[in-house]
């Protein structure tokens, strides 16, 4: 498979389908400003300053006026793609945008593939692969946490970290080589360990943020589990702010499960209300209970709800390391010691904010605010490989440690997109939208 050529002029509608106040058509490639100038009535983009805009008319090949527009001209290499580029900001009509795109194509441009502008930016060295992936994450971010992380990645937060780690490793390699060549002058092997350990520590620290990064990017599934009448459906409704689930004093009301999307402290959540867990011979209820326990096993976080106003029931088998204990009905008199539980009342709203905060902290617990997180599977996979190579290097005799360090360096450089195969590049950009 070959990557698309860098040498032709690409064009695409950059704004989403549908009507809007403004629509944008992007063009990039050597000769793109000349091409646009032939379809432009107004100050020529060739006579504009480096990054400048002007107002005028877009005309068809026959001179027919297509729309009044703003023309933004970027002289390469000072552009997003690194090549001459232009943006036409037209009225946001699908008919106008299609016509302008078609006219550009008739004049010699070709339709851009998904992410091809960003692909050019990467291939022209305007950004590394991790930054390009952050562009995609930013476009796709649906939560505030995801947006912040994507922006951090775009401004090379992760890249700088990877670069710094790689430099330490390169330095170490040089020292090991020196030691192999002149053992009497080089560093002691013990010193190599001392310098490797912090690198491994950093890699592990980064890797530990991956679950939180995935949750920030894709959201989390939270299961509400507990005995019948524990207040699961009431809590779901209270968190949602409207009555989604049926609430009754009759135990066993919720027999199937029910999913509802919400946002907790900037993280997209799917909350799952489940059937109350208790021993039963009712066939429907029994499969509801089984399903509830299954959902708990698969959830990112489980809320185990227990009614504080009645005598405690036996807790079911739950993934306790991912479970938060919640005592419900705090407005009633407690019948047991609720220490270690988050105390809430869905009736009065007591404790809901603190529950939200606790959920947020649990979901993102290994990802400190203000630091770089791993939000991308490809990065997590490469870091995991770097980790095992570094572990190997620590355990290997000095003359062999170099090989493992080289392995780690290779894995790290893949994150930045150095020496990656066209397949990898293709896979990254395939997920982009056209026009980005
Ligand atoms: N006083 C009080 N009653 C509650 C509270 N939450 C739920 N209930 C009541 O407890 C009963 C069972 O609630 P429900 O949400 O259906 O429990 P589920 O079976 O776990 O889904 C209903 O009668 C609710 O009105 C609460 O915070 N305070
Ligand atoms: Mg219920």
Could you walk me through the main structural features you see in this protein, from its secondary elements to its overall organization?
The protein has 436 residues and is an alpha/beta fold. It has three domains: 119 residues, 2-Layer Sandwich (Gyrase A, domain 2), CATH 3.30.1360; 122 residues, tRNA modification GTPase MnmE domain 2 (Four Helix Bundle (Hemerythrin (Met), subunit A), Up-down Bundle); 148 residues, P-loop containing nucleotide triphosphate hydrolases (Rossmann fold, 3-Layer(aba) Sandwich). It is 43% helix and 18% strand. It has 14 helices and 13 strands. It has a seven-stranded mixed beta sheet. It has a six-stranded mixed beta sheet with strand order 9-10-8-11-12-13, with helices on both faces. The model has no long low-confidence stretch (mean pLDDT 93). The protein binds guanosine-5'-diphosphate and magnesium ion. Magnesium ion binds next to helix 9. Guanosine-5'-diphosphate binds next to helix 9.
């Amino acid at each position: 498979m070959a990557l698309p050529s860098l040498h032709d002029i690409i064009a695409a509608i950059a704004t989403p389908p549908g009507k809007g106040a403004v629509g944008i058509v992007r063009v990039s490639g050597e000769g793109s400003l000349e091409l646009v100038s032939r379809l432009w009535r107004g100050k020529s983009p060739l006579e504009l300053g480096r990054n400048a805009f002007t107002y005028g008319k877009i005309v068809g090949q026959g001179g027919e006026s297509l729309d009044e527009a703003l023309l933004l001209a970027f002289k390469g290499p000072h552009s997003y793609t690194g090549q001459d580029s232009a943006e036409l900001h037209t009225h946001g009509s699908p008919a106008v945008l299609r016509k302008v795109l078609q006219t550009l194509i008739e004049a010699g441009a070709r339709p851009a593939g998904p992410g091809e502008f960003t692909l050019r930016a990467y291939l022209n060295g305007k950004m590394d692969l991790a930054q390009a992936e952050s562009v995609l994450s930013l476009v796709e971010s649906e939560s505030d946490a995801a947006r912040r992380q994507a922006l951090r990645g775009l401004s090379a937060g992760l890249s700088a970290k990877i670069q710094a780690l790689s430099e330490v490793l390169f330095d170490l390699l040089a020292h090991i080589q020196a030691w192999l060549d002149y053992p009497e002058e080089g560093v002691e092997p013990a010193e190599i360990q001392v310098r490797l350990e912090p690198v491994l520590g950093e890699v592990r620290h980064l890797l530990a943020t991956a679950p939180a990064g995935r949750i920030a990017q894709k959201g989390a599934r939270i299961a509400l589990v507990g005995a019948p009448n524990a207040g699961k459906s009431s809590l779901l409704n209270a968190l949602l702010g409207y009555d989604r689930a049926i609430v009754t004093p009759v135990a066993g009301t919720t027999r199937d499960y029910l999913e509802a999307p919400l946002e907790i402290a900037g993280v997209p959540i799917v909350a799952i209300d489940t059937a109350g867990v208790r021993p039963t011979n009712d066939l429907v209820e029994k499969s509801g209970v089984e399903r509830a326990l299954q959902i708990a096993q698969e959830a990112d976080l489980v809320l185990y709800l227990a009614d504080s106003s009645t005598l405690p029931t036996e807790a079911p088998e739950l993934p306790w390391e991912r479970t938060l204990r919640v005592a419900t009905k705090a407005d009633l008199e407690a019948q047991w010691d609720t220490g270690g539980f988050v105390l809430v009342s869905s009736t009065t709203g007591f404790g809901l904010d603190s529950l939200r905060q606790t959920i947020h902290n649990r979901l993102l617990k290994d990802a400190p605010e203000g630091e770089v997180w791993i939000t991308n599977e490809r990065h997590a996979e490469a870091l995991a490989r770097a980790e095992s190579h570094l572990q190997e290097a620590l355990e290997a005799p000095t003359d062999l440690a170099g090989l493992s360090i080289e392995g780690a360096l290779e894995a790290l450089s893949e994150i930045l997109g150095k020496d990656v195969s066209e397949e990898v590049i293709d896979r990254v950009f395939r997920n982009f939208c056209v026009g980005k």
